Each structure stands twice: as structure tokens, then as C-alpha cells.
Amino acid sequence: MTWVQEYNPLGNIGLSALVAAIPLFLLLYMLGVKRVKGHIAAAAGVTSAVLVAIVVWNMPISLAISATLNGALYGIFPIVWIVVTAIWVYNMSVESGEFEIIKNSLASITDDRRLQALFIAFAFGSFIEGTAGFGTPVAITAAMLVGLGFNPVYAAGICLIANTAPVAFGAIGIPIVVAAQVSALDIMKISQVVGRQLPFLSLIVPLWLVVTMCGWKRAMEVLPAVLVAGICFAGTQFFTSNYVNAYLPDITSAIVTIVGLLVFLKFWKPAKVWHFPDEKPAAGGKVQLKYSTGEVLRAWGPYLILALLVFLWADDKFLKFKLTLLKIDQLNPLFLISWPGLDGLIQKAPPVVAKVSAYPAKYMVNLLSAAGSAIFISGLLSVLIIPNYSFGRAFNCLGRTIVQLKFPIGTIAMILGLAYIMNYSGMSSTLGLAFTATGSMFPFFAPILGWLGVFLTGSDTSANALFGSMQKTAAEQIGVDPHLTVAANSSGGVTGKMISPQSISVATAATGLVGEEGTIFRFTVLHSLAMLLFMSVLTLLQAYALRWMLP
User: Fold this and answer.
1) Is the overall model pTM greater than 0.90, yes or no?
2) Which burial class, exposed, middle or buried, applies to 216 when counting CB atoms under 10 A from its CB (0-12, 13-18, 19+)?
């Protein structure tokens, strides 16, 4: 017995859309107004979504529960698998003391605050975003800047602003993976479109940071270094996202930017070293490199191994490593599961699709070829190069990492459950159909939806899970390439990261500013809105006048 999705259960598409948005309004209220913890808000959101799907959309209870569980399990694997393993590698580096070498190697390059912000907040933060994501880069880089003597408010604000350019490809490309999953679009084409939007922002973020710190006049003193950082990052981000894969743009861009700045500063120095006016004299003292080249390379070794393995795991063009792993995975009888009580039991109907068709529900158990497995193996290999560290300590660290992330794990699972129930019930499609009322202007609003989603959830991944399907539906209804609007959801979402309550809480905790969340919000909100406007105008132009820019 199959069930056909409904898109206008109340007879008025506007009213139906408002009811479909109840779970999202509830999330907004609990996160933005009540400021409750993420897992509590997620639990309320997914519960309300299930109730609305059953009561208003007349979705059978069994289908609603099955769809929610399907999404939750997808949140656990492969998404949480990536998050846990990436943060495990970082935690091992901290626990072993190797991360102190990484911090010292970065801080010793220059004692100019503007250049330190480029290295740590922008370049190194992008590297951590690419490998871990989910708040980790802001926590690490903000704490590092305060440790170097930065004003805590500027340390928090600058790291939040810097954490825009890399977010769409964070955590080994998980936001793009989820966008492709929920929209059923090609992951590489979404990556290519994002790679033709974000580099414009990436090019100007370094200058944006420096001007925010010291104003235009002082920013011009380090303009050559700013240009090197922006061009290295934006150029590499474009190339990797368009011609390599969706998993490595942050990692490759960050590495190229760090190396580019290192080489450039061998030949160029600013005429005047700049520090914050209220800094104590001792705070601005030059940090000396306390370790040998071998020790520095060893400390960075786990991340170099991680980058190499993730590249291999994603390679389906050169060595075809990914295809080999998939063939091995396919030997597992549970490799591709037809999700019980859901697969093929729901029918999509016009106008969302051209004709009535079954909505598939599969679950892939690709234990070997999953990106998280590449990170896990890189962690095991890292044990071999970390001094005085054993596999026993490594697995104990893994256990502590899981405990550390118990609430984020639950939050991610519930947010994906919320996304799936909204998609399978037809609620997301209802919202998408309502947005088609904006007609040809919808591409302008596509990034705004992503921005709202990241503000609500603190995660570009979750925002794509919530709105990816809706973006596709709306684009198809007005005749625009759906890859553009789905990509714009992610590209616009990155501008909401700096004002998300979760991100601000991480930043204030890392800089000792707990209780000053309002101060940090006011510091970042205008930057967020300005960047969002930029992305909205760019998306509108790419939909029509600049369509030639799309793949």
C-alpha cells in the first residue's frame, strides 16, 4: 500500500507553507530567543515535524517514524563518523603535546597582529574547518589568538568572520554531501557551482578581516600579504571544487595559502609592525620558534596524512581508489539497504515531479569507502609518528571524544531526522512551492534561506539538510538550474555562521567572554548581512545575466 505526498493539505498554499514551517519557527524560537541547547531544540523540532506530518499532511504513522529514523541513522553514519574521527585526530594532537608545536610554528612566523590573523584565523582556521568543522576551528583559533595576546573581543569576532569562506566545504565536504543527498542532485556539479560562488567571497575575506581590525589606512600597509592570502585561497578553492572533488577544497586551499604566505614573507615584511592600541607591551613580543624543522613536520604529520588519505578515498579519476574501495564494500550483503517500511512506499506527485513516481529510501553501509574511515585510518597511522603515544591511549582518546560529542551527535541525528521527515512527508516541497511565488526573483532569496538555516542550526550541513530539497523544488518550478539554488543554500549559509548562537557560544567560551554573547553578536551581525547581500546578488546574476558562469 503506497501513500501519495500532499503539498497543499489546507487548500491554500500560503497557509500550508506556514504550517509546514512550524518546526522551523520552533527551532528559531528555541535557539534564537530562548537560547536553549542545540540538542533540546533539535528534539523539539523533529517531534513537532513528525506531529505536523501525521496530523496535517495525513502521513501514515509508520511511514513518518521510518523516515525520521532513516534520516537519524544517516546522521550517525556517515556524518557523525566524519565528525568524531576528525576531532579525534585533533584531540590526539592536543593530548600528546604536538599541537603546542603547531601553535608555536604558526605564531613564530610574524609578530604583526594583522599577519597573525591571516595565518591563524583565516588560513589555519580554514584547515581545521576542512578537517573537523562543526565549531572546532573557531574554538581552536580564537583560543590561539588570545594566547598570542589578542584583544578577546577581536579574537572572537575575527575568527567568526574568517570562518565564512571555508564553511561550505567543511568537515571533509559534508555540507555538499548532504545537499546532494537530500536534493538527489549530482554532488560534483553542486561542488562546481559553490566553487564558482564562494571564491569571490574568499578573495575579499582577508582584506575584510584586516580592515575590521585596524581600518583601511593600516590595512593598506599589508595589502601585498592580503592579496597573496586571498588569491591563494580563492584560486585553490575554485580549482579543487571544480576539478578534483567536494571533499578537499578547504584543506588544499588552506595549505596553499599557508605555504604561499610563508614563502612571500621570506622576501617581504610590512614597514611597520602593528599591535592593538590597548595591548600590553609584552603581549606583542615576537614569538620565537622553539622547535626544529623535524619536530614541526612531525607535529603537522597527522594532518598531512589525513589530507593524503582523504584525497585517495575521494579519487575516482586518477588511481580510481574510491572505485576499488566501493567494489570491496559491495561484497558486504548490507552494503545497500532498502529501508524497511519506507522504500518505494511513498509517491511523489506533480507539480513537484513531472509524473507520479516512487520516492526511494536507501541506506548505504559503505564502511570502508566512507570518508570517515579515511580519517580513522589516518588517526591510526598518526599514532606511529606521535612520540610516546600508544594505540591504547589513542583508543582511550577516541572514547573520550565520543563522550565529548554526545550532544552534538544527538543534535546532528535529530536534525537529519527532521530533514528527512519534512522531505518524505512533502512539507519541504510545500515550502518550495510557496517560494515560487517570488517568481524570477527566487534566486535572490535562495542564499537567504541558507543563511537562516545556519543561524537556526549553527551548521551549513544541517541547513542543507533542511532546505536542500525545497531549493531544488522551487528552482524547477521557475525554470532555473536547481544546482544553482541548492549550491546557493550552502554559499549563503556560510554568512550566517558568524551570528549563529552556537558559534558565538563557542567563540565566547574559547576567549573567556562567556556572558558577552551580545557583544560578539553586535560585532558580527553587520558583516554577516553585508556578505549575505553579496551572495544573493551574485546568485541572482548567475541565474540569468551570468548564466555562462555555471558548469
Assistant:
1) no
2) exposed
